Amino acid sequence: MVTVNVSAVGRVSLARGLPVTITLDKNLEDVTVADVKAAVATKFPRFYASRQKLTLKGERKALADEITLKDTGLSDGGELTVKDLGAQLGWRTVYVIEYAGPLIIHPLIYNYPRFWYGALVPKSMLQKMVFGLVLAHFIKRELETIYVHRFSHGTMPFSFVFRNSAHYWVLSGFLLAAAVYSPTYDNYAQYVRGSLRDNPRFLWSCAALWLFAELSNLYAHLTLRSLRPEGTKTRSIPYGYGFALVSCPHYFFEIISWVAIAAMTGSYAAWFFVAVSTYILAMWALKRHKAYRKEFKEYPRERKAIFPFIL
């Protein structure tokens, strides 16, 4: 039997009875941080486990759920501190919300040009193709979120959903749609007629590049899924298509698919989205690449993070 004292860091309105003493009917080497969170949630039902950040007293680093109290260095009767992380939302739900934005915004602007531009917009082949590619991309992302991705973290603060969604809802949603479906790109526009954007061979070449990148991205996601059994946080070194050159080929192929759309349109909005996305994905890739190299001593040293032979 183990006794743990849990006190609050800052204001914890959902657990006004803190500090509390929790008794668990296990040995010190068997009690995990998750067990302590569950016990706290039993005493304060509204203060559910994913809202809790448990730390050793006087420290700021969160303790991982799977770590035992013995591994933390805590002794029987020791003290942990808990912080309220705020309302939480599942990562899967967050991604579904993020990708839903363009799926709503693009059809609204594409199908109702009179409302947005004050006139009908006779659709060019370019506009029709971009509309189809964008919808296909985000439908794929939604399906991957539901059926393919496995997340190492169960939840995130609810407030973050607005920040995360802005990237897709504003940049690849409203900004891109408002630019590409405007009269500037319609069937009679000078910007389109007689240019590459009116050339079926060029447009289908861009679409072929987009398809290659999308399928490659999917394959990389499936590879990563195969490395993590459901319900676990297992991490392994990924190998295979794309991973021989970079740690995050799914990010690389994601960028390529948007470069294809940006090249097809020549739109400032599309290139701006490519630039912002490339920066964000590069930062994520560098972080993951560093984590791989730190965790696995045998990690291939010749791999780059996101761009083959470059970065």
From TrEMBL:
GO cellular component: endoplasmic reticulum membrane
SUPFAM superfamilies registered for this protein in UniProt: Ubiquitin-like
Listed transmembrane segments: 160-182, 202-220, 241-262, 268-286
Stored PANTHER family: 3-OXO-5-ALPHA-STEROID 4-DEHYDROGENASE, VERY-LONG-CHAIN ENOYL-COA REDUCTASE
The Ubiquitin-like domain, residue ranges: 32-82
Superkingdom of origin: Eukaryota
InterPro entries: 3-oxo-5_a-steroid_4-DH_C (IPR001104), SRD5A/TECR (IPR039357), TECR-like_N (IPR049127), Ubiquitin-like_dom (IPR000626), Ubiquitin-like_domsf (IPR029071)
Pathway where it operates: Lipid metabolism; fatty acid biosynthesis
Originating species: Fibroporia radiculosa
Family note: Belongs to the steroid 5-alpha reductase family.
UniProt KW keywords: Endoplasmic reticulum, Fatty acid biosynthesis, Fatty acid metabolism, Lipid biosynthesis, Lipid metabolism, Membrane, NADP, Oxidoreductase, Transmembrane, Transmembrane helix
Keyword Membrane: yes
Documented EC number(s): 1.3.1.93
Uppermost EC category: oxidoreductase
Pfam families xrefs: Steroid_dh (PF02544), TECR_N (PF21696)
GO terms, biological process: very long-chain fatty acid biosynthetic process
Gene Ontology molecular functions: very-long-chain enoyl-CoA reductase activity
This protein's record includes keyword NADP: yes
This protein's name: very-long-chain enoyl-CoA reductase
Membrane-related topology note: Multi-pass membrane protein
Subcellular location: Endoplasmic reticulum membrane
Organism placement in taxonomy: Eukaryota, Fungi, Dikarya, Basidiomycota, Agaricomycotina
